[in-house]
């Protein structure tokens, strides 16, 4: 029974990773850059929801919308100010800038909200489910997180394959130049990608803070990095890959915490990343990219 | 024995046969041209010859030794050097250092001798600089020796690429569109330079080119590639007057 | 060619002479007793950060890869060397010899880990390397915080579970005690040792850059495909460069460990933030510019200490520095703007 409970908690944590990883993977696929600050957008989403709910007295649905709006605006702003001017620069410069943005967001939050953790009230009001005569308790947060994770992945896949905007994203991710020639608004498409990715980060932030109710300026850092690991594990650029990678990573982390060592669980997760990259650098579902000579 | 002998060479990308049943035979000191319409697979042939791509079929014999399966690095060591269609220089190194980088495999001094600046370091560095300057003077680049390669004008960058390739002391030199983007005067000068390279270094040269004046001016023989296959081959003037070739270029 | 000779002498002076002069000036002030204890406490860290900055610049500037794990290599160097000193402490060896052995152990262990972690360099590019190195830094910190290492008559005992699993016999002593780390490291580091190690690191790096190997590494950075076409073994050389850089970061770790009596692997000193700070030094000082790295490390370490009010905003300033520097040096729009201004300023000279 305890195994199933660890497994479900792992899938739940994995769903959060998956939602963040989806944002990473979309941005990577389209802008060909690692948005290091993605995890910190999640943290901003957490604070926005916290402020809306606890200080402004907005209800849960409005708080979620408020948080998503803030994150979307922030994501688009960051893209416009910091990343867009560097679109043709080398990848090292873009990566360092993204690290700078991540650092900036963390330290702004530190100045604004202080280092003391805020205790985040769970947005999930679903009662826990008791199975097998109370031996197996599944919390509402776990169920909602898993459901939202699946929902987000399905909606995103439908969006990309069934709508014009989604097709434009695919076109831009294949070839920016050709997409421009075909009349695709490349700048708009990239901005839209950042907007969607950031809105998803906000959702992930709220789910994460509901399950682990302490919110600090560095809340987003570790999940952000782990979600990136998940995206790489699944094959960066691939949406189903990000989802599978996220779930696998969450399960792996929770099971190693339970059965191996709680102190070493991060080390185990990161070791898996290194091993995967050595064995299959393109990840589980990634494509191999060949450089043109 | 020919210097380079290629038989039945082929590679596919996702089901598309980019190069199929390609064959060529080049004698020592020959100036050989590989021509064909855009997208015919000429650069792919170069990439196969230099180990950037591994062929699906066929053999590449350099001095009788099959070099299929060797890496870029090994193939260069065995004696094939090349230039690139889109210039690939070491932009942030000086012109001199671009050439000196080509001497790397000569094992002039060891890592330790370099770090501790033992006498051999100074001696060999001096020697390499002198040789690099000699090579640069062939291309009239010696006064740019200390400029950054990325700051050279276009035509000179093309020449520097050739100088760098020669620094590795190859037996076969592959030039990928050396005259691309040059004006007629520069092209004229380039033709002289290519002949000079052949004579001075006893070099065998295979080049891809679209400029027909250059091709007919310096190439001894030609192979025409169309849709990844050899359309025809032979003496330059005969090939250029071949009906099939004219059709391939101008369409039906 | 005469000019070249002159430039070389100028280079040597700027690389090493300035550091030496500053060293003697500081020594003079120290003798006269006009240095505050705060400043005294900063002297060794200045050397540590300078060494870290030039070692990271070797990776970022010369081989063109990004490492976010340099604090991890520093951590390896610190813990291996401190363990070595702890084991040899109380033996009959003279302290300087113990420190020298510890230094070698620190550099070699960090270099070895750099080599292990650098093997992905053989397969991966840019972004992935950054993440792998970041992951490595976290793994190291994680393991050291869980590691118990004690020694008694029966030899060495290790455990990754908890302290009680290591049953130390009579007279046994702890070397690494989990999250509490190492306590009682002998203090061998001082300003003179720091400056000597900085100068040696600088000398090593400069000689490396200006050797055939360094030239080849930079060629690979500029264009890997062209480099392989002239038989430069790209993967091997990048790995070599990465290993050297890690070893030098390990030396900084040795200095760090022997400057404090207790050593713990905290996020503050060996975490991701520390790696970012080193990156800030490199970026602000100019990617590929070793002297700039040292200058940036010194200025950015002293500034917040001198202007206490700045301290709250220090991290914020670092973040802005990273973004603005990158936009200014790499964004095509900014480059055009900058060249336009330079062009206007210097047009007269060009015409004349």
Write the topology of this structure.
The complex is a heterotrimer of chains A (293), B (252) and C (352).
Chain A: H1 2-31, H2 38-55, H3 60-83, H4 91-113, E1 118-119, E2 129-131, E3 136-138, H5 140-162, H6 164-174, H7 176-181, H8 186-211, E4 214-215, H9 221-234, H10 239-259, H11 265-279
Antiparallel strand pairs in A: 1-4, 2-3
Helix pairs in contact in A: 1-5, 1-8, 1-9, 1-10, 2-3, 2-4, 2-8, 2-9, 3-8, 5-6, 5-8, 6-8, 9-10, 9-11, 10-11
Chain B: E1 4-13, E2 16-26, E3 31-35, H1 42-49, E4 57-62, E5 65-66, H2 72-78, E6 80-82, H3 95-101, H4 111-115, H5 119-138, H6 154-167, E7 172-176, H7 184-201, E8 204-208, H8 212-218, E9 221-226, E10 229-235, H9 236-240, H10 243-250
Parallel strand pairs in B: 3-8, 3-9, 6-7, 7-8
Antiparallel strand pairs in B: 1-2, 1-4, 4-5, 9-10
Chain C: H1 2-32, H2 37-62, H3 70-88, H4 95-123, H5 126-146, E1 148-152, E2 155-159, E3 173-177, E4 182-183, H6 191-209, H7 212-222, H8 224-229, H9 234-257, E5 262-263, H10 267-270, H11 272-285, H12 290-306, H13 314-330, H14 332-351
Antiparallel strand pairs in C: 1-2, 1-3, 4-5
Helix pairs in contact in C: 1-6, 2-6, 2-9, 2-11, 2-12, 3-4, 3-5, 3-9, 4-5, 4-9, 6-9, 7-9, 11-12, 11-13, 13-14
Question: Which regions of chain A have little confidence, pLDDT < 50, spanning 5+ residues?
Answer: none
**How do the SSEs of chain A run, as a string of H and E?**
HHHHEEEHHHHEHHH
Query: Over the alpha carbons, how many angstroms does the gyration radius of chain B reach?
Result: 19 Å
Q: Quick one: biggest sheet of chain B?
A: 6 strands, mixed
Number of strands of chain B: 10
What's the total number of strands of chain A?
Answer: 4
Strand order of the largest sheet of chain B: 6-7-8-3-9-10
Q: Give the tally of structural domains of chain B.
A: 2
């Amino acid at each position: 029974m305890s195994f199933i409970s660890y497994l479900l908690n792992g899938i739940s944590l994995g769903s959060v990773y998956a939602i963040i990883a989806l944002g990473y993977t979309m941005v990577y696929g389209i802008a060909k850059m690692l948005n290091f600050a993605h995890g910190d957008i999640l943290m901003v989403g957490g604070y926005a929801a916290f402020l809306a709910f606890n200080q402004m007295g907005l209800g849960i649905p409005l708080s979620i919308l408020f948080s998503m709006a803030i994150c979307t605006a922030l994501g688009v702003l960051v893209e416009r100010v910091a990343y867009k001017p560097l679109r043709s620069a080398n990848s090292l410069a873009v990566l360092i800038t993204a690290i700078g943005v991540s650092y900036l967001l963390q330290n702004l939050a530190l100045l604004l909200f202080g280092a003391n953790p805020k205790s985040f009230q769970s947005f999930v009001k679903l009662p826990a489910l008791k199975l097998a005569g109370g031996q197996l308790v599944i919390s509402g947060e776990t169920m909602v997180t898993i459901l939202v994770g699946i929902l987000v992945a399905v909606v995103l896949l439908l969006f990309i394959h069934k709508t014009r905007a989604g097709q434009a994203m695919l076109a831009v991710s294949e070839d920016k130049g050709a997409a421009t020639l075909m009349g695709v608004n490349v700048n708009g498409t990239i901005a839209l990608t950042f907007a969607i990715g950031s809105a998803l980060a906000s959702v992930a932030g709220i789910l994460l803070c509901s399950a682990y109710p302490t919110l600090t300026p560095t809340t987003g850092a570790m999940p952000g990095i782990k979600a990136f690991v998940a995206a790489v594990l699944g094959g960066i650029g691939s949406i189903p890959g990000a989802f599978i990678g996220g779930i696998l990573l969450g399960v792996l982390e929770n099971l190693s915490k339970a059965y191996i060592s709680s102190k070493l669980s991060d080390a185990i997760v990161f070791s898996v990343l290194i091993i995967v990259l050595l064995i299959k650098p393109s990840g589980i579902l990634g494509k191999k990219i060949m450089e043109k000579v | 024995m020919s210097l380079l002998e290629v038989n039945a060479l082929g590679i596919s990308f996702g089901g598309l046969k980019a190069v199929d049943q390609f064959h060529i035979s080049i004698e020592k000191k020959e100036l050989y041209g590989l021509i064909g319409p855009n997208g015919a697979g000429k650069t792919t042939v170069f990439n196969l010859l230099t180990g950037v791509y591994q062929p699906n079929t066929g053999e590449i014999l350099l001095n009788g030794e099959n070099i299929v399966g060797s890496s870029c690095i090994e193939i260069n060591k065995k004696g094939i050097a090349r230039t690139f269609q889109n210039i690939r220089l070491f932009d942030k190194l000086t012109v001199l250092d671009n050439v000196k980088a080509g001497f790397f495999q000569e094992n002039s001094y060891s890592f330790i001798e370099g770090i501790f600046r033992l006498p051999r370091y100074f001696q060999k560095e001096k020697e390499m600089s002198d040789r690099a300057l000699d090579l640069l003077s062939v291309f009239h680049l010696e006064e740019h020796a200390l400029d950054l390669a990325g700051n050279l004008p276009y035509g000179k960058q093309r020449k520097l690429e050739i100088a760098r390739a020669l620094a590795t002391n190859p037996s076969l030199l592959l030039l990928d569109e050396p005259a691309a983007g040059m004006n007629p005067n520069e092209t004229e000068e380039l033709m002289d330079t290519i002949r000079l390279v052949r004579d001075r270094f006893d070099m065998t040269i295979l080049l891809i080119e679209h400029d027909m004046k250059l091709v007919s001016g310096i190439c001894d023989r030609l192979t025409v590639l169309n849709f990844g296959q050899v359309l025809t081959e032979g003496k330059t003037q005969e090939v250029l007057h071949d009906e099939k070739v004219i059709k391939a270029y101008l369409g039906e | 060619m005469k000019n070249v000779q002159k430039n070389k002498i100028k280079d040597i002076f700027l690389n090493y002479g300035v550091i030496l002069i500053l060293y003697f000036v500081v020594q003079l002030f120290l003798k006269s007793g006009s240095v505050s204890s705060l400043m005294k406490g900063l002297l060794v860290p200045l050397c540590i950060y300078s060494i870290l900055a030039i070692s990271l610049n070797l990776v970022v500037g010369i081989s063109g890869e990004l490492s976010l794990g340099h604090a991890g290599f520093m951590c390896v160097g610190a813990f291996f060397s401190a363990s070595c000193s702890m084991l040899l402490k109380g033996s009959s060896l003279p302290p300087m010899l113990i420190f020298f052995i510890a230094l070698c152990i620190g550099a070699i262990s960090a270099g070895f880990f750099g080599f292990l972690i650098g093997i992905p360099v053989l397969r991966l590019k840019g972004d992935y390397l950054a993440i792998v190195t970041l992951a490595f830094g976290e793994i190291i910190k994680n393991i050291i915080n869980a590691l118990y290492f004690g020694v008694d008559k029966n030899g060495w005992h290790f455990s990754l579970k908890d302290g009680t699993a290591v049953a130390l016999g009579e007279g046994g002593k702890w070397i690494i005690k989990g999250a509490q780390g190492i306590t009682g490291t002998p203090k061998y580091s001082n300003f003179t040792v720091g400056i000597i190690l900085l100068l040696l690191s600088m000398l090593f790096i400069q000689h490396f850059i200006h050797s055939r190997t360094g030239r080849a590494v930079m060629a690979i950075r500029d264009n890997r495909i062209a480099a392989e076409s002239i038989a430069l073994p790209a993967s091997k050389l990048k790995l070599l460069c990465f290993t050297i850089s890690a070893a030098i970061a390990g030396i900084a770790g040795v200095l760090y460990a022997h400057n404090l009596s207790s050593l713990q692997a905290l996020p503050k000193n060996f975490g991701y933030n520390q790696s970012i700070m080193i990156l800030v030094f490199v970026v602000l000082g100019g990617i590929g510019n070793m002297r700039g790295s040292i200058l940036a490390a010194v200025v950015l370490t002293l500034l917040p200490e001198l202007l206490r009010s700045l301290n709250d905003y220090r991290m914020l300033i670092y973040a802005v520095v990273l973004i603005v520097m990158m936009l200014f040096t790499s964004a095509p729009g900014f480059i055009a703007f900058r060249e336009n201004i330079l062009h206007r300023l210097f047009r007269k000279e060009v015409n004349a």
